[in-house]
Amino acid sequence: MRSGPVRVLVVDDSALIRKLMVELLGADPGIEVVGTAADPYIARDKIKQLAPDVLTLDVEMPRMDGLTFLRNLMRLRPMPVVMVSTLTQAGAQVTLDALALGAVDFVAKPKLDVARGLTEYATALIEKVKHAAHARVSRIAAAPTGAAHGGAAPYDGPLGYRTTDRLLAIGASAGGTEAIREVLSRMPADAPATVIAQHIPAAFSGPFAERLNRHSRMTVVEAGDGQPLLAGHAYVAPGGRHLRVVRSGARWHCRLGDDEPVRRHRPSVDVLFESVAKYAGANASAALLTGMGDDGARGLLALRRAGASTFAQDEASSVVWGMPGAAVALDAAGEVLPLAQIAHRLLAVAANG
């Protein structure tokens, strides 16, 4: 167990942002900001001198861009990194690249002119830095190639299920963008319809769905309100909106909602899972993957009680074993599995009914 405050190094080219982040993080007694750096070269030296537990890293940096620095860091001295990104299309793409390289999580640039926004930002920043300190990070041999399907083997067992009768549901948070990519990369093109809730901002969910689509044999899209759920397709909840599954006649459809966040999240995994439990029940299979907090644990329990097959990612393969750990504590998971086995089990139970 960790003793003492989390030691943080703040890396950002903006003196104003550095000052603000030092103030926000330093206000929490569980965090000690041990230093700041204006560019990756200064950061490299300070990492050696100060041995921080967590790094906050700006995406756009002078002299060496944030991705290049992160790639070198994760190859030579892997450590927990929380990216600080802009809520733009370009910022989303770079941040998703950073998560693929091993960054634990990300926060958006703070809203300097809105007091409420700054308070919300501080809460998220502190929470993510603290969880990052306990995250599992590993050395990378090289940058991900971006090759289609990620080099993963698809499910090769006999299918034989009527795909319109089966539904898969996946939920995740910190570490989830890559975990979901790995699960979908192992799915065949005719897998059952799959609904996904990942904690992500509105500007990021579209690029995230596009990235998943490039790495999957399935067709992956950002969910639209009223959209029918089709076999061979996966539907990602839009950032900032709840995704529910509803039944209309013989088909399931997506239903988007702007109602209040649940467990501080919108989209919420609990909201998605509970709707799947209500309208699909035993015809569903669900997996709760890496993420901080407990969103999705109660929804997974509702699914299990409704007769669905339920799975949780194991601690050893999770970046943060918060959400799946909470599900295990509630006895919501029928099986606890390494990430690499989850796609196979989701499909196997779907095939066997």
UniProtKB/TrEMBL annotation:
Catalytic activity annotation: [protein]-L-glutamate 5-O-methyl ester + H2O = L-glutamyl-[protein] + methanol + H(+); L-glutaminyl-[protein] + H2O = L-glutamyl-[protein] + NH4(+)
Compartments where found: Cytoplasm
Residues covered by the Response regulatory domain: 7-124
Active site feature: 173, 199, 295
GO MF annotations, alphabetized: protein-glutamate methylesterase activity
Pfam families per UniProt: CheB_methylest, Response_reg
Record's comment on post-translational modification: Phosphorylated by CheA. Phosphorylation of the N-terminal regulatory domain activates the methylesterase activity.
Record-annotated CheB-type methylesterase domain positions: 154-353
SMART domains: REC
Domain of life, source organism: Bacteria
Keywords from the UniProt entry: Chemotaxis, Cytoplasm, Hydrolase, Phosphoprotein
Residues where 4-aspartylphosphate is found: 58
EC code: 3.1.1.61, 3.5.1.44
HAMAP family: CheB_chemtxs (MF_00099)
PANTHER family: PROTEIN-GLUTAMATE METHYLESTERASE/PROTEIN-GLUTAMINE GLUTAMINASE, PROTEIN-GLUTAMATE METHYLESTERASE_PROTEIN-GLUTAMINE GLUTAMINASE
Stated name of the protein: Protein-glutamate methylesterase/protein-glutamine glutaminase
Annotated organism of origin: Lysobacter koreensis
